[in-house]
Amino acid sequence: MSSPVSTSNKRVRPTSAAVEEAVREVIAGNQSINKTALAFGISRAYLAKIVKKVKSTDENYVHSPNIGNKRIFSKAEEDLLVSYLKTASKMCHGLTKKQTRELAFQYARANNKCPEKWTIDQIASVEWLRGFLKRHKDLSVRKPESTSLSRATSFNKTNVGEFFEKLTGLYEKYNFPPHMIFNADETGCSTVSAPPKIIAQKGSKQIGQVTSAERGTLVTTLFFINAAGGTLPPVFIFPRVNYKDHMLNNGPSGALGLAHISGWMTENNFVKALEHFASHVKPTKENPALLILDNYASHVNLRVIELARIHFIKILTFPPHCSHRLQPLDVTVYGPFKTRYRIVMNEWMLCNPGKTVTIYHVAQFVRDAYLAAFSMVNVTQGFKTTGIYPLNSKIFSDDDFLTSYVTDKPNPALSEDAIADNVRPRTPQLSITNIDSSHASRSPNANRTPIDDLMTNILQPSTSRQQIVSPEIVRPFLKSGPRKNIKSNTRKMVSAIITDTPEKNKIQDKETKSKSLKSAKNMKTKTNIRLLNKKKQDDTSDSSESILSLHDDTSLTSSDNDINLLELKKRKILSNEDNNYCIVCNEHYVNTKEEWYQCKICEGWANESCGIKGVINFFCQKCF
Prior knowledge:
The chain has helices at residues 16-27, 33-40, 44-57, 75-90, 97-110, 116-121, 126-135, 149-154, 157-174, 267-281, 302-310, 323-326, 328-351, 362-373, 376-385, 416-422, 450-458, 471-474, 501-517, 526-539; strands spanning 181-190, 218-226, 231-238, 256-259, 289-293, 313-317, 433-436, 465-468, 547-552, 569-571, 596-598, 605-607, 611-613, 618-620. The chain folds into 4 domains: 1-65, Arc Repressor Mutant, subunit A (Orthogonal Bundle); 71-143 and 433-476, no CATH class; 152-195 and 215-385, 2-Layer Sandwich (Nucleotidyltransferase, domain 5), CATH 3.30.420.10; 526-620, no CATH class. The radius of gyration is 36 Å and the shape is elongated. It is an alpha/beta fold. A 6-stranded mixed sheet has the order 4-3-2-1-5-6, with helices on both faces. It contains 20 helices and 14 strands. Helix content is 37%, strand content 11%.
């Protein structure tokens, strides 16, 4: 029962547990205040004051001493302030320390209990904020993640509801087993990454760790996981023109290697990746596969849809900008994977001093990180956390949708009651309540501001009781204004089953329209220029007049032979013979039998065999 008594001259502050036990001994155990205070090392007068207070209230006593700065707000008022701060942070519009102090000052002034120092400084003191955070351990100063406005606003009940509605329909129609429910997504694996935390001297201003270079080269990696916890060999996109087998040395077994000059996923490469997926999963008409992925352009196109329909693959896309909450790979797998990837790369740098990481090492790093991060626990937890499998359309609470509260607009077709239930978030009830005026500290207010006028209309004078003005009245939660009615021809991306016929037809119409608008002759060639020069010579009688050539400045369009050339320049031809040479092989244009193209980078002209020709652009071998 007793606690040790300090023998030093300095008084030791009793713990809250000791004070509460001493109060119970006096009240419930009918012990003497003097003996109990001596036994617990508590001041007799202090214990007597607490006992008297407890007897007058007949409530269970919880010891919360007001140590240090005098508490400005009551417990009920601080609880309202805590709820406001939590709600604002969930809306991705959290308050900084200075903004919190400004809010506390306005809050205190609205409740007519603003200290004189706060009134002079027009802000709450730093000491108050420090004590406030100590009293509320569930609050802390955190560094937030940068969240784009698109992500914050797109993750709302409407978009998520549509996704789960389509997912439910697929489950009911095809009854997919968990090993046939897949999620696919790309992630970037760079040759330079942030090093992991290390042990160093305490107090050092700057700690360095060697990396391969200032900026790294990106290798895109496509992963597949299923709801049963399984994975498929990944797909690598290397930033090269042609893929070589040695790029996958020491990589994951069964992995597919592809190449593209940018290192990004393209339509052609995703078609090959989908064939890789079908060869491992082997879906049939009786046992189809479900593939859930995002709305990236290389995923949503006619070639991918036709291939998926041939191999009995049903493709469902996520709502735009919602993959950070709905995609299993993003939620539970990629975090551990990137952490392990950085560790593996750092260990390689320490074991190979003086060497740099190249794209030929990426597959090896991915293999080690892949085996550690793509565990069955992480994969299955990703599908469970997102509500995809087992299906749980109510996995997200109202608090999860608070990020979209700022920009959410009511549906005009809904009634006012439905709007209030479906659009407004379930925020804490920050209303005006009553408290005993004897617990409120008052101070004069010399300067009147708009908030004073607002409070004058809200608060009714009373001699015995005072109303609490909630922080939401002092500083309302942010809400965007009405949207501008701007008509756009761009089709809004939504969650869709793109392998269904209606969605397939929409995508087909979109691609057809896009191809008709795009000029098929954007690439400048010698043949086109020769035809235009000939037409120009036939139409004009002045032989000294300017005609079109490679180095022209103006843009002309010829309707004959469907020739549409962009950004052609003019110069005078001094002779009938074109004296240009290939910048790669130095062959004269008059002697060549190949088509000539202009390099997009150096703007020089070369034979078709002396470079790389794309759909629109051409690059000579000197530039690549």
